[in-house]
Amino acid sequence: ALPGLPHQFWASAEGRPGYSGVGLLARAEPLNVTYGIGDPEHDPDGRVVTAEFPSLFVVSAYVPNAGRGLVRLEPRVRWDRSFLRFLKGLDAQKPVVLCGDLNVAHAEIDLCHPKANRASAGFTPEERAGFTRLLGEGFVDSFRRLYPEARGAFTFWTYLGGARARNVGWRLDYFVVSERLAGAVCDSKIRNGVLGSDHCPITLYLA
C-alpha cells in the first residue's frame, strides 16, 4: 500500500527466510520483469530483480558477501563472473542502471580504514578486481564519475563502536550505469542523514 508505487516485485532466498532478498518498486509498469542472473548456483538466493523499461533496464541487486574469514570468497568470485556476463547481455540490448548493495569498496577512498581491511570481506583484491572488470566492460560508477575526490562518502556503518556517529564506514551501495548513459546522469547522491539501517539510501537522478 505505497501510494504512487503500484508495481512491486520481490525476490527472496528459497527455504532460507531472512537470509537474502531484493525488491523493486516502480511508478510505471515495466515491459518485463525477470528474476536471477541465469546461474543455478546463485539464483536460489533471490538476489536480483531486473525490470525492463522502454529506454533501459533497471537491475536491483544484493551481491553476496565473502563472509567472515572469507569463507565464501570463492563463491563470491564466481558470482562476479556470472553477474558480469548477465549485465553485458542486458547492455547489448539497451542501457543498464544497476543499483543496490554490491558488497565491495572499490578503492581506498571508499572506506575509512583501508590498510586495516585488506583481508576483510568487501575489500579483498579479488572483490575489488571484480568491480574493476565491471567498469572495464563499459559501465560507470556514477558517484565516482561525478565526485572523484569525495572522501567520507560512505553508505554502510557497522552497529559496533559508534561507527556511524564517527563516520567510520564503507561505500558498498552503488548506481552503476552503462557508459552511454553517463552523460544523462544529473546527480548521484548518498543520503547519509537517513537512519533506520546500517546502510543508508542512495539516489540517482537521470535525465
Return the string of H and E elements: EEEEEHEHEHEEE
- The helix tally amounts to 3
Rg = 16 Å
Shape: globular
| Poorly predicted tracts of residues | none
Strand order of the largest sheet: 3-4-5-6-8-7
Percent range of helical residues: 10-25%
Strand content: 25-35%
Q: The biggest beta sheet, please?
A: 6 strands, mixed
What name goes with the CATH superfamily? Endonuclease/exonuclease/phosphatase
User: Mind telling me the CATH class?
Assistant: Alpha Beta
Catalytic activity: Exonucleolytic cleavage in the 3'- to 5'-direction to yield nucleoside 5'-phosphates
InterPro entries: AP_endonuc_1, AP_endonuclease_F1_CS, Endo/exonu/phosph_ase_sf, Endo/exonuclease/phosphatase
Protein name: exodeoxyribonuclease III
Binding site for Mg(2+): 101, 103, 198-199
Topology at a glance:
Blueprint: E1 7-12, E2 21-26, E3 32-35, E4 48-52, E5 57-62, H1 73-91, E6 96-101, H2 125-136, E7 139-141, H3 142-146, E8 173-178, E9 185-190, E10 202-206
Parallel strand pairs: 5-6
Antiparallel strand pairs: 1-2, 3-4, 4-5, 6-8, 7-8, 9-10
Subcellular location: Nucleus; Cytoplasm; Mitochondrion
Cofactor: Mg(2+); Mn(2+)
Keywords: Cytoplasm, DNA damage, DNA repair, DNA-binding, Endonuclease, Hydrolase, Lyase, Magnesium, Manganese, Metal-binding, Mitochondrion, Nuclease, Nucleus
Name the descriptors:
magnesium; Deoxyribonuclease I, Chain A; 3 helices; Endo/exonu/phosph_ase_sf; DNA-binding; DNA damage; 6-stranded mixed beta sheet; two-stranded antiparallel ribbon; globular; 207 residues; alpha+beta
